[in-house]
TrEMBL record, chain A:
This is Sarcosine oxidase subunit delta. InterPro entries: SoxD, SoxD_sf. It comes from Stutzerimonas azotifigens. Pfam families: SoxD. Gene3D superfamilies: Folate-binding superfamily. It comes from the Bacteria.
TrEMBL record, chain B:
The keyword Repeat does not apply. Residues 172-446 form the FAD/NAD(P)-binding domain. Residues 916-1002 form the Aminomethyltransferase C-terminal domain. Belongs to the GcvT family. Residues 527-610 form the SoxA A3 domain. This is Sarcosine oxidase subunit alpha.
TrEMBL record, chain C:
NCBIfam families: soxB. Belongs to the SoxB family. The keyword Nucleotide-binding applies. Its cofactor is FAD; FMN. This is Sarcosine oxidase subunit beta.
UniProtKB/TrEMBL annotation, chain D:
Gene3D superfamilies: Heterotetrameric sarcosine oxidase, Probable tRNA modification gtpase trme, domain 1. This is Sarcosine oxidase subunit gamma family protein. It comes from the Bacteria. SUPFAM superfamilies: Folate-binding domain. InterPro entries: SoxG (IPR007375), SoxG_het (IPR006280), TrmE/GcvT-like (IPR027266). It comes from Stutzerimonas azotifigens.
Length: 109, 1010, 416, 210
């Protein structure tokens, strides 16, 4: 069971208090009407789904009812940071790649 | 019967407290402090069960969690049956009833055993994949017999009288295992002031110290244990959990501990001080800052011929039975070993006054202290030898000891048969790396120790003692103390100095790798050498698997069932993979282990479920009028978590009669509905209107204060996902209603868009679902009735349709909305929920002259359907757009902002003209009610598979219309008015219906607007 | 291929089972294949088998990064049924069901397909409507299905708590009697053995790390054992499909989630069918070994750890005890997780991709085991001809642009 | 006309029924064991208001302080003055609890003080929730059975208040005194919570206080 730091409440809470809400940083197109079917389909359905660092949206459903972002490793499930909506992640796959950090262990598949 | 194997002295049992129990119908006696296994051994019970596949007699092998054979059914009554209890881990209690799980007619004379001997040859690993294919129709018959033969114990057939609960624990340091390493760790962490939990699955704390012959500070090791426990008990932040198995290590240092509170006491848990049932077991859900794993090591048996005959045991288990339980499971011992540590069993055996026939040590020149001690006491030590075969059918009669070349896998001497009744073996020690590996961390092989130790872990954990490969007692104590101190320090707690007890000085020599003992014959022809006793997996089976191409350790496991049993391979896995590695010509490290998963040992379903069952399975939500509904005989419908009155039957009425009566009452008089469950969201802020514009499909710019409007909500894909009426309370203030089931979803949806997309919009949303209770008065006489109890001017011009007013209803401040879901003149009265029951009762009272009829959701559904009003989720699924519902009127095509849903409903597929569209369906036979869900076709004569063109979404008999009617979606239906569709039913009949407008009643809407 | 039979077992017993042949070879990769299948799960192996056996394409390799059948195939709860709602999926799953019915003989390998019946319990009025809708659609599609009322359910499923006192009383159920279970491992091994016999190279411990492309078309795969050329590539990697798409340079409408299951200790027969409940949220069957095989829903976040969250297990067992109170004293032996590739409409993607000659078969999510033979068959047909098989065509990626989704969500109960 | 609708929703002369009215707590008073480890009391029919606004805006924070007599509490805390308490729920959300019948005045006071320029919201939710007060020596155990939130005093001192998971639902736990805790329970869940609490408390003995 994950232990997640809510950046609004300022403390770690059990996963049961949260609801995952999918990939983060997918802004709604400013002018949907101008999107082609491809662009709109891409916005609606297509996801990064990475093995590794993932920026995702969570809702502190039982706590402050606020959404926030988390950078989580999808194999080790380690959460490297959480940050508020509108903020940018400090930890990214690109940054890690340049540091050449190995994948967290526990990779089984 | 006498306890013939009970030693006269010693052990941690209370001879003054005899306990009666039965096994396979026989009555026996044991002592307080016994495990079920030790009590059986004390009574000389050899055969404990029959093996799974070959039905061979089996006896007790181990003394702990690794026991594969002594897996018994216990329980004196039907309701208290527990299948597959490990006798080694079950404390004896008075009146315990146990039986074997296999063996017919009895374990001693088992007919299946004959079958096993004959048929066993036909049952190599994976045999079932190779046969029973012809004729395919017969597989189900074969399967029935296979199923009968398989399985161990049986489930009770009556409901459990016991309860189970959960406790959420938090600590700085969780120490798993209370052997020397764990006790030292807990001490170090506890003294630092940290919050510490110490859990051990045993009946007592102490681990290996409970039966060791080693001393601490020159005294019995258990004295030190008692002293440590006393100190730990005195520390306020230390929690001791006995009989508590840490069964799973989950992400982010979340662990579960399965504690057996009452299993040692009797059939069912006792009653507590307040006369209520205490929990039988408790699941602790622990979040730990640091975890110290001090789980020790399991001894491995050696794999030799007929090593499953009762009387073959682990060396360490023999010691445990002797020293802890004062039970001698035999008279004449042959010990086979590859290490020094096992010699203590020979010494213990001698101490008990029993005969050690010989020790067969595979090593050529063992010189360790214990070895020398044994020699000094006259023990015959045969070096370079091992036990290669055992004789005896129901009990060991002799063991053949021969010289072997363990590297070349050869027997190098003919050996000799040594008469004995007990063969103890030790093939080394496997650290209990289970918990350390639950999160995927792979254990690492250490050739120096001949053991897998915990691999790198990314969780915040430390390992100490034998699990860490630190086998020596003194070192284990130091390792434990260090780990406990480090764990606490990592959290920020300082510890004092260590003062650990003094241990004996001994010389201990390395062990020599031996897993499967060679035999003169090739493995496939040698006497059966069992690796996994529970699943009858033999060395030959493993070799066969590798020969057939199963080269991955996981393939070997799955093909042979190695480690699949209730012991999860604690006894056999390492031997099995060593055998597989050898037969593939690779190293053990390369072979690797199979995946370790929770549970460490099996956990009761009830304990995992906790109190979240029976009435507490899930919350049931009630409105403020629930007490009245109950008093007035309502039948309830589950809608989301709510219990809603479905209909209010009068004596003798079925649902149809009740609903027909309720419908008539609303259409001709007045009815009252509890509509409190509708979601209600208070929306405040200068941008509230703009927000509504974006989130609803229709336009909100022009809705005046005092007015209300129906709105449709779509997802970005253009599919309808909720609807409801929103009222403008003031310029910057709206009250939105949602469907009952959708309330939470919609609020979350609004928050999602506000928080992540449009934070610049000044608006706040607050749920007021529970604050307002809603009662709907509906029917032509509702105005008259309401006027009796309100000061609001109900005149049609003063209070027109789709508007709302504030005023007193029954003396309570109310907001009354003139909106209608039935098509009749209706008032939705909203009052603060604390006063709702009073208002409701006043309305009922005032309604008597009007024959005011309470109605439920079923009537509401009929009435709204007569009007063609949709119910989201019933008339829609996630593939229906507003246009499909013929509700294009609710789509603001000219709104400036590209609101949610607009782009989605303008995709290639959503623009198709022949989409399924919602229409009315009028059965040609007015008495026939189309089943809701029935599929529709244009041509009922076509052959199967038929081309389906839609389905019925809502369907009723209308008391008002005098005929049945329905709504449904039909391909291109809106352009097919007057055409026929057919519903071919399960019973072969076909209902024919005409496609009509979905508004069956009062199409002009005059009745609601009077 | 050494044929398997009862007589064969007897014959081999005379030589102490020392002469069983390998079920498959351990070949070294050829430089180039007509078709390379990435992923040696049930679907990939079935695809290879039908390619070689039915469609005459014999120069085929299956490239598997671990051991054959070690992905979701090894960890699923083995429910087989074909009672899907929408025509497109119903036809596809029914195609698979027909193949199941003759599969053991076709492969000469007992996959233990056991049509013991699959119940979907209904607990609300909407459940009942959905059930009627599904059964009605199934029957008109030629798929067996029945709708039972509460009394019939109580009579047919012993020990199920059908009393009115439960939180969500049972109102009825659907039953597909041809549905049931099969032995997951046997399916992978049976296909592997038969594919190998038909000439397919099964390359284990071979991980695809990239796709080599020329002019927008794939020409082979990079692996940890070097480059392997291919005229066509079919990717069948379930939970790892999103990752494979990234390697190929595009994205999919897929998220990979943990899905867990658990087994009890082995018991004497007590549950003789498959029982699933959406409202209470759990499902259960009993394997031939005697363990109760239990599962429920997915964890909500992306996860490649092959493990899920403990509260999910708790909720699942709460559901099981709620449905079968007698199981309260039974004990859970092992829990595990898989990585399921979920799509927005809970239907698979069998499709061409933006890369020419590169085909994907994925998105089976929580319910693809039952489709194994059908999926392999239609995918093989598509790979053999380059034209999508008629049953596969509706499952193209294009539907996520046009909007022609095949939404099985609402109708499928717990989708396994 | 004001941009928002402010409405006195409580009748002055009628008795209300709290969410646990049907449970008949009053009849249970004095019936529990004297040695009960858990004591429960419903603090019913109080005025509950949800307050929304921007805490960083001094005119909002100052206004609230002025109107309520309590300063806006920081995250996860509770501030009280007499019978009035103000609790942080979220960065832009607070729960104001005032004595029964004072909620309308409190809202008016807030609105008067905060004025009409500022963007904020005040919502009366008095009918939608109730306060259950738990005391006694086993309260912590009872809470540990119910929530995975850490209720150890070192982590959950007096004056802390958190929204969290509880049994199978969510609520707010407030630590109001050494041995006294409060649960803010939604009306429609009150029956479930009451059933849960009785069950969880059974082991320690439960007494109901008036
Ligand atoms: C717990 C659980 C329960 C389920 N229950 C059911 C059920 O009851 N009924 C049902 O019908 N379905 C069920 N499913 C779903 C079902 O298991 C899957 O849909 C199905 O097994 C998928 O088969 P597959 O062959 O596509 O995938 P897999 O068996 O996962 O095979 C994919 C293979 O691709 C390999 N691979 C991945 N990446 C690479 C690479 N880069 N290079 C080479 N190889 C690679 C993997 O190692 C794996 O072996 C369940 C799933 C789970 C997890
Ligand atoms: N010299 C050798 O070759 C050798 C080999 C093996 C063991 N030993 C002896 O083993 C001891 C090592 O001490 P130790 O403290 O590491 O181990 P230990 O075996 O004394 O204690 C381990 C404890 O952990 C408990 N445990 C295991 N898994 C658990 C779980 N999941 N949940 C709860 N409890 C669990 C066991 O019940 C046991 O009480 C020393 O006494 C040492 O002499 C020596
Ligand atoms: C249908 C089915 C039945 C299973 N039965 C058992 C069982 O009886 N005993 C057991 O230990 N594991 C059983 N397993 C679980 C496997 O041991 C293993 O956990 C699972 O295949 C996932 O692999 P992994 O744990 O190695 O990752 C079963 C798995 C499946 C899919
Ligand atoms: Zn928060």
């Amino acid at each position: 069971m994950l232990h997640i730091f809510c950046p609004h409440c300022g403390e770690l809470r059990g996963e049961e208090e949260f609801a995952p809400a999918g990939q983060a940083h997918i802004p709604r197109p400013l002018d949907p009407a101008a999107c082609t079917d491809e662009e709109w389909g891409d916005y609606l359905f297509f996801r990064d789904n990475p093995r590794g660092l993932h920026h995702e949206l969570w809702l502190h459903a039982a706590g402050c009812r606020k959404y926030f972002n988390a950078t989580r490793h999808t194999i080790s499930y380690e959460i490297l940071e959480t940050y508020k909506i509108g903020e940018k992640p400090d930890v990214t796959a690109e940054a890690q790649a340049s540091e050449k950090k190995p994948l967290a262990q526990g990779a089984t598949a | 019967m006498s306890q013939k194997n009970r030693l006269p002295r010693g052990g941690r049992i209370d001879r003054t407290r005899p306990l009666d129990f039965t096994f396979n119908g026989q009555r026996y006696q044991g002592c307080d402090g016994d495990s079920l296994a030790s009590a059986l051994l004390a009574n000389g019970v050899d055969i404990i069960g029959r093996s799974f596949k070959y039905s061979r007699p089996r006896g007790i092998v181990a003394a702990g969690a690794e026991e594969p054979n002594a897996v018994l059914q216990i329980g004196a009554s039907e309701a208290t049956q527990i299948p597959n209890v490990r006798a080694t881990q079950q404390a004896l209690y008075d009146g315990l009833v146990a039986s074997s799980t296999n063996g017919w007619p009895s374990v001693d004379t088992d007919l299946m055993g004959i079958l096993g001997r004959v048929g066993g040859k036909l049952m190599p690993a994976g045999f079932y994949y190779k046969t029973f294919m012809y004729p395919s129709s017969l597989w189900m018959t074969y399967e029935k017999y296979i199923r009968k033969a398989a399985g161990l114990g049986r489930a009770p057939l009556e409901n459990d009288p016991d309860i189970y609960d959960h406790m959420n624990l938090h600590c700085d340091v969780l120490v798993v295992g209370a052997g020397p390493a764990g006790l030292a760790a807990a001490l170090a962490a506890g003294r630092s002031g940290a919050r510490v939990i110490l859990a051990d699955e045993g009946e007592a704390f102490g681990g290996s110290l409970l039966d060791t012959r080693e001393t601490l500070d020159g005294k019995r090791a258990t004295d030190w244990v008692d002293q440590v426990l006393a100190e730990l008990q005195s520390l306020p932040e230390v929690t001791l959990l006995p009989r508590a198995t840490v069964n799973g290590y989950h992400d982010h240092n979340f662990l579960t501990i399965h504690q057996r509170l009452a299993d040692h006491l009797g059939e069912t848990a006792p009653r507590g001080a307040f006369a209520q049932q205490l929990p039988r077991q408790r699941m602790h859900r622990v979040r730990a800052g640091r975890v110290v794993l001090a789980t020790g090591a399991h001894e491995r048996p050696l794999v030799y011929g007929n090593n499953d005959v009762p009387g073959n045991m682990l060396a360490g288990a023999v010691t445990t039975y002797l020293r802890r339980y004062a039970v001698a499971p035999g008279k004449k011992l042959v010990l086979a070993t590859n290490n020094d540590y096992a010699y203590r069993t020979a010494l213990d055996w001698l101490d008990a006054g029993l005969q050690v026939v010989a020790v067969a040590d595979v090593r050529h020149n063992p010189r360790g202290s214990w070895v020398e001690d044994a020699r000094a006491r006259g023990v015959r030590v045969l070096t370079g030898c091992s036990v290669i075969d055992v004789r005896g059918s129901k009990r060991v009669e002799a063991a053949r000891v021969a010289a072997i070349d363990a590297v070349a896998m050869k027997v190098t001497s003919p050996g000799e048969w040594l008469e004995c009744d007990l063969v103890a073996s030790s093939g080394g020690y496997s650290p209990v790396v289970h918990l350390a590996s639950h999160l995927g961390g792979r254990p690492a092989w250490r050739e120096d120790l001949l053991a897998f130790v915990p691999g790198e872990g990314f969780q915040k954990r430390l390992c100490a003692g034998a699990v860490n490969g630190v086998f020596n007692l003194g070192d284990a104590l130091a390792d434990g103390f260090e780990a406990g101190a480090t764990a606490a320090a990592q959290i920020g707690f300082k510890h004092g100095a260590s003062e650990l007890p003094r241990t004996e000085k001994r010389v201990e020599e390395p062990s020599f790798p031996l897993f499967q003992v060679p035999h003169e014959k090739p493995t496939a022809r040698a006497p059966k050498q069992f690796v996994d006793l529970q699943n009858d997996v033999t060395a030959a089976g493993i070799e066969q698997a590798t020969r057939e191409g199963f080269e991955s350790v996981e393939h070997v496991k799955r093909y042979t069932a190695l480690g699949f049993g209730t012991d999860q391979g604690k006894l056999g896995n390492i031997n099995g993979l060593a055998i597989a590695a050898r037969s593939l010509g690779i190293g053990i490290a390369e072979m690797g282990t199979t995946m370790f998963r929770p549970n460490y040992t099996p956990v009761t379903f009830g304990a995992v479920a906790g109190r979240h069952c029976d009435g507490l399975f899930e919350p049931a939500r009630y409105t403020a009028m629930q007490a009245w509904h109950l008093r007035n005989g309502a039948e309830f419908e589950d809608v989301g978590q709510w219990k809603r009155p479905w209909y209010f039957p009068r004596p003798g009425e079925d649902i149809h009669a009740a609903v027909a009566r309720e419908c008539r009452a609303v259409r001709s008089g007045v009815g009252i509905l509890d509509a409190s469950t509708l979601g209600k969201i208070d929306i405040q802020g200068p941008d509230a209107r703009e927000f509504l514009n974006r989130i609803y499909t229709n336009a909100w710019t022009k809705l005046d204060v005092g007015k209300a409007r129906y709105g449709l909500m779509c997802k970005e894909d253009g599919m309808v996902f909720d609807d409801g009426v929103t009222a403008c309370l003031a310029d910057n203030h709206f009250l939105m209603t949602t469907t009952t089931g959708g309330a939470a979803r919609v609020l979350q949806w609004l928050e999602l868009y506000h928080q992540t997309e449009w934070p610049e919009l000044k608006v706040y949303f607050t749920s007021v679902t529970d604050h307002w209770a809603t009662m709907t008065l509906s029917g032509p006489r509702s105005r008259e009735l309401l006027s009796q109890v309100t000061d609001i001017d109900l005149d049609r011009d003063a209070f027109p349709f789709m508007s709302w007013k504030e005023g007193l209803v029954g003396g309570v401040p109310a907001r009354v909305f003139r909106i209608s879901f039935t098509g009749e003149l209706s008032y939705e009265v909203n009052v603060q929920a604390d006063y709702a029951l009073g208002v409701w009762e006043q309305l009922i009272e005032a309604g008597k002259p009007y024959d005011l009829t309470p109605y439920g959701t079923e009537t509401m559904h009929v009435l709204r359907a007569e009007k063609g009003f949709i119910i989201v989720g019933q008339d829609t699924d996630a593939s229906v757009t507003p246009d499909d519902l013929n509700m294009g009127w609710a789509v603001g095509r000219n709104k400036p902002f590209s609101w949610i849903g607009w782009r989605g409903m303008n995709r290639a597929d959503t623009l198709r003209e022949d989409r399924k569209q919602l229409v009315g369906l009028k059965p040609v036979d007015p008495q026939k009610v189309l089943p809701e869900g029935a599929q529709l076709v244009f041509d009922p004569e076509q052959s199967i598979p038929m081309t389906m063109v839609g389905h019925v979404t809502s369907s009723y008999m209308s008391a008002t219309l005098g005929h049945s009617f329905a709504m449904g979606v039909v391909k291109g239906g809106l352009k097919r008015m007057g055409e026929r569709v057919f519903a071919p039913l399960v019973d072969g009949s076909v209902i024919e219906a005409e496609i009509v407008s979905s508004v069956f009643y009062d199409p002009k809407g005059e009745r609601q607007n009077v | 291929m050494q044929r398997y039979s009862g007589f064969g077992l007897f014959k081999h017993s005379l030589s102490h089972h020392e002469n069983w042949q390998r079920m498959w070879r351990n070949p070294t990769p050829k430089p180039v294949y007509d078709v390379v299948i990435v992923g040696g799960g049930g679907h990939g192996l079935a695809t290879a088998y039908y390619l070689a056996k039915t469609f005459g394409v014999k120069n085929v390799a299956v490239v598997e990064k671990g051991w054959l059948g070690g992905g979701n195939t090894a960890r699923n709860t083995t429910i087989v049924r074909s009672n899907y709602l929408w025509d497109e999926s119903a036809h596809l799953y029914e195609h698979a069901m027909k193949l199941w019915e003759g599969l053991s003989r076709d492969l000469n390998y007992n996959v233990m397909y056991s049509p013991r019946g699959v119940y979907n319990l209904c607990h609300t009025l909407q459940d009942m409507r959905d059930a009627e809708r599904r059964v009605s659609a199934n029957r008109l599609n030629g798929i067996d299905g029945e709708l039972l009322d509460a009394a019939q359910v109580a009579a047919e499923i012993p020990y199920l708590d059908c009393s009115k006192g439960t939180r969500y009383p049972v109102m009825g159920a659907t039953i597909q009697r041809r549905g049931g279970v099969a032995r997951h491992d046997a399916v992978a091994w049976g296909y592997a053995r038969a594919a190998d016999a038909a000439g397919v190279d099964l390359l284990q411990q071979t991980e695809v790390t990239g796709f080599r492309k020329e002019n927008g078309a794939v020409i082979g795969v990079e692996t940890n054992r070097g480059f392997i050329g291919a005229r066509r590539v079919g990717v069948v990697t379930a939970g790892n499909s999103g990752h494979m798409a990234r390697l190929a340079g595009f994205r999919l409408p897929i998220e990979s989630h943990p899905l867990q299951a658990l087994v009890s200790e082995p018991l004497k027969p007590i549950i003789d069918s498959v029982i699933m409940s959406n409202a209470v949220h759990g499902y259960i069957s009993q394997s031939d070994k005697g363990d109760l095989v239990i599962g429920a829903g997915i964890d909500g976040y992306v996860g490649y750890g092959q493990r899920g969250s403990y509260p999910t297990i708790e909720h699942t067992l709460q559901a099981i005890v709620e449905m079968f109170p007698i199981l309260s004293r039974v004990r859970m032996n092992r829990q595990w997780g898989g990585i399921v590739d979920t799509t927005p409409d809970a239907c698979p993607i069998i499709s061409r991709t933006p890369v020419q000659n590169l085909f994907f078969n994925c998105g089976w999510g929580t319910g693809g085991f039952k489709a194994t033979p059908g999926s392999g068959h239609v995918f093989a047909a598509s790979l053999a001809t380059g034209q999508m098989h008629a049953l596969a065509a509706p499952f193209s990626i294009d539907r996520f642009y046009s909007g022609a989704l095949i939404d099985e969500h609402g109708a499928a109960a717990v989708a396994h | 006309m004001s941009a928002v609708n402010v409405y006195e929703q409580r009748p002055s002369h009628l008795d209300g029924q709290s969410p646990l009215h049907h449970a008949g707590l009053a009849e249970l008073v004095g019936k529990g064991s004297a040695s009960a480890g858990i004591r429960l009391r419903e603090r019913k029919l109080l005025g509950h208001l949800v307050l929304r606004g921007d805490a960083r805006d001094p005119s909002f924070a100052g206004g609230v302080h002025k109107a309520c007599g309590v300063e806006l509490p920081v995250a996860l805390t509770l501030a009280a003055a007499g019978e009035t308490s103000l609790q942080w729920l979220a960065p832009d959300e607070w729960l104001l609890i005032v004595p029964q019948g004072e909620e309308f005045a409190a809202e008016q006071r807030l609105r008067d003080t905060l004025g009409s320029e500022l963007h904020y919201a005040v919502v009366n939710v008095s009918g939608g929730q109730t306060l259950l007060e738990l005391s006694g020596e086993n309260v912590r155990e009872l809470l540990m059975k119910s929530t995975s939130y850490d209720v150890h005093p070192s982590q959950f001192p007096v004056g802390k208040a958190v929204g969290t998971h509880f049994a199978k639902t969510q609520l707010v736990i407030r630590h109001t005194g050494e041995d006294t805790w409060q649960l803010v329970v939604r009306r429609s869940f009150a029956d479930y919570i009451w059933a849960w609490l009785q069950d969880a408390a059974a082991e320690y003995g439960l007494a109901v206080d008036a």
